[in-house]
Amino acid sequence: MTHWDIRPVTAADLDAVYAIFAACISPCWKKETFAARLDHPCAVVLAAWEGERPVGFADGECAFGLCELNNIAVLPNCRRRGAGNALLLALGKEAKQHDCTAIQLEVRQSNRAALDFYLENGFVQVGRRKNYYTAPTEDALLLDKHLQEEEKDDETAGD
């Protein structure tokens, strides 16, 4: 398992992290919108670093005892090496610091790779939003992970 340096994204990191966003996710936010997340008091934006370059990021928003995972992405050539797991684990720790008890997210029902990743990391399906996504139209699956489970998983997190 690779050791990842997980740290908050700063303005100096913005270009490199936004490039990951643009490469991995159909960019629904402009760079300026993404940059504004860095200063938002409820936002937790973390990057996984390999040496001098970020290889992935996670963006969550903590409010009302819940952390909403907005985006998580790892560069294709760095996947399946534990960066995504490390980002989720770090997000959970940060969320607990914001008094959150769970992480919530939504994922396209057809995104099998992402769905498998979330399920392997302790998320469970708790709902469905019919026709939530467009181009193509499809349902969003709602997933939750309770953070008290993180405490026992910290030392045994998988790759």
Walkthrough of the structure:
A seven-stranded mixed sheet has the order 1-2-3-4-5-7-6, with helices on both faces. By secondary structure, the protein is an alpha+beta fold. The chain is 29% helix and 36% strand. The C terminus is likely disordered. The relative contact order is 0.15. It has five helices and seven strands; from the N terminus they run E-H-H-E-E-E-H-E-H-E-E-H. The longest helix is centred in the middle third of the chain and has 15 residues. The radius of gyration is 15 Å and the shape is globular.
Keywords:
alpha+beta; 159 residues; seven-stranded mixed beta sheet; 7 strands; globular
Q: What's the short story on this structure?
A:
By secondary structure, the protein is of the alpha+beta class. The chain has helices spanning 14-24, 31-37, 83-97, 112-120, 150-153, and strands at residues 5-8, 43-50, 53-63, 66-74, 102-108, 124-133, 138-146. Helices cover 29% and strands 36% of the residues.
